[in-house]
Design a protein that fits this description.
Layout: H1 3-18, H2 22-42, E1 44-47, H3 50-68, H4 73-100, H5 108-117, H6 122-131, H7 135-142, H8 145-155, H9 163-184, H10 190-193, H11 203-211, E2 215-218, H12 231-242, H13 248-266, H14 272-296
Helix pairs in contact: 2-4, 3-4, 4-8, 4-9, 7-13, 9-12, 9-14, 12-13, 12-14
Length: 304
Amino acid sequence: MTTDAAVARATASATGALLGRPWAWLCVLGIAAADAAGAAASDVTVTHTLRPMLASLLLLAVAVAYRLADRNLRIAEMTEAAALWIAFSAAGCVLTYLCARLDWPLRDAALVRLDRALGFDWTAWWRWTGRHHVATLLALAYASLPAQLVLCCVVLPLLDGDRTGELFWTALLSLLVAAAIAGLLPADGAYVSFGLADRADWLADARLLRSGAPATFMLPAMKGIVALPSYHTVLGVLFIYSWRGAGGLTVAATAWNLLMIVATVTAGSHYVTDVIAGLALAVATIAAVRGVRQAFGHSAIAPG
């Protein structure tokens, strides 16, 4: 073995000892670099990035410290997972904004027609949920995404298999696809189509992006602007899949995330077509990640 090869191997070994998921971090850094380049090219500025960055680095430092001390690697995995999700969420959110900058024609009219062809009356469903006091429960389910991610970071490392890595890779792959689709097939959403535009708190950001004018956004205040496909639906399916075979946790996670998926229509201003597309994307990404693991071995993705 040459000296250079030995050094490279030692470096890779040291990196693996410090970071449980080096490839995942590399992908997130790649998205962040693409964000920086895209923002500079399209006159978009993102501010207030320091706190999320520091939170991610602090959690990562805890994970590295536990690995170096060779103590309680479960805690190392939990804290690294949390750090990774904070960084990924920030980079992914900026990516969706930059894709909206493409300003392709809005597809709301076509999505309304598709919903009607499926026999779904969005306005009737909105009124029914309001009359039967279901709207509050649906809104609660829809808003549970951050809490569910925290729960996944804490509990999934305690279960069998690399569920933490599996959830991350399926979420990352599906986000890349969803951001691209949303950029090419943008929509204002059902609230705008059905006279509820005052509820669409993301609309000002989306329209500013599509205008091409110089734009500045605060990272903590950025919204979910992906309409088609519904990324809430994608994550709902991925959560259900991640909790499989876990007894009572499986039942609870399945019931709650099915409710969250239903909630995307009224609480998330989605067309049913958005939800169907989200279901299809989630299934496709699960199949893709499983296929890679089966073809190249579990270690092809599991370490990071």
